[in-house]
Solute:Na+ symporter, SSS family
Amino acid sequence: MWRDHLTEIIVFTVLFLLVSAMGFVAARWRAPRDMAHLDEWGLGGRSFGGWITWFLVGGDLYTAYTFVAVPALVFGAGAMGFFAVPYTIVIYPMVFLVLCRLWSVSHRHGFVTPADFVRSRFDSPVLALVVAVTGIVATMPYIALQLVGIEAVLKTMGVTGESALARHLPIIIAFAILAAYTYQSGLRAPALIAFVKDTLIYVVILVAVLWLPQKLGGWGSIFDAAEAKFQATAQNPNDGILLNANNQLQYVTLAFGSALALFLYPHSITGVLASRNRDVIKRNMSALPAYSLVLGLIALLGYMAIAAGVKPLPGSTPGSADANTVVPVLFDQQFPDWFAGVAYAAIGIGALVPAAIMSIAAANLFTRNIYKEYLKRDASPAQEANVSKITSLVVKVGAVACIVFLDPQFSIDLQLIGGVIILQTLPAVALGLYTRWFHRGALIAGWAAGMGLGMWMLYQIPNPATKRAHFGGSAFPLSDFGFDTKKTIYVGIVAVLVNLLVAALVTLVLRAAKVDAGRDGTTPDDYFADEGDPRVTPGPARDADAAPEPVA
């Protein structure tokens, strides 16, 4: 009953309303003379410095889903759940080489989305449309998953009822507030809120990893309890606190594939393009692995929950369990009510920041690469900003609909599909920053081949736990390819390799046939432009008395 959690509810509500107020105030923070411009509404004026970018990108990448799903996976499967830790470490050196080039060419030409870059680089509106639609489709379930995180907290506090309306009403209200201040303040809202969100997360996790082991008998007892659970109850022989010969390949390919996908997501690129200069990106790519330390500690909460005897709350269908409630229940059982309320607020606010950025990124893709390209070529900057604002509202409504009308567990599986989908933009976006060797027609053919194979592989994967025959995960058995082995591999890696192979072969054919490859709208020095370059496209002028930017 909610009355048993009254203190938690009060603390959660107060902090939630505080950051909501900050979201509305953000429109006046570093205020421009004109918010009716995508550079200002959708990219914060392209002027964020070191500290703001640190919190914005960190808050964007480490979402509420991270804080509930990673430990839930460790709770249920063991070592496989730690794949998120290495992939968030190895990604930063790789994107260090890519994002600086993307920032430069985007600022010189005024690109707002990765599809803008692809349109100019390969002279192909069709390829740009493919990249834009892929980004939107991959982002939608990601936004819905932020709702899964909030729902896990609300369910633990007992504020969700039995009926469909009672169960989802608090989430609908929360996202209505999010939609309102995102509409008004644009990217400035999540940028400002990210300061509070990340501070709360760091405090909560550090307190948890210092306090809980003492209560649970030490780390030795925690790992012993986890090992005993997996030996006694594991339905899957691959579950355990260590990897085995059958799941090591899946672990490596899942970690590497997830790393490649992370900064292809439109919301990741949006946070980077809002940076003031290349040095800001370099410093943040060097420092952001600090978040991975916290992520590793968050993952360990799954083992702590096993040692504490946590039982997940019932799921949405009879007889099922909602594994995403593992961490909220752990805090509810092991901490005073007021601190549990702070932890719940950290998770809830942790959903607002990425959800806002994701909806803005998806809206920018629609506005620049569908609306302006195909519906109104002469759209003014003000019209673009207005369409993007409205689209961001529609995107949030769609995310809420995913939770209301679909089983939340299916939304989680959709996110796995999203990673496979967004990986298919790697040749055009990431490799396109370094080479134009691939033919524009070949990139479309490669995308189609990778997407088709990826969807076929995902369709073949069942999920025994949810009794679903298709789209039940991302671990594809190599035996289905005719190999005599029990090993599995991440679908996304296979699909993107096929994508690259087809793109290379079709490029050779089209070049041999002398098919027109279009004109490159960029020049080599575009990829090295920096702040102060006279050819870098400035955003709308900012007020002279705007608050100064802190420097990292």
Notes: Strands lie at 313-314, 321-322, 475-477, 488-490. The radius of gyration is 23 Å. The mean pLDDT is 86.
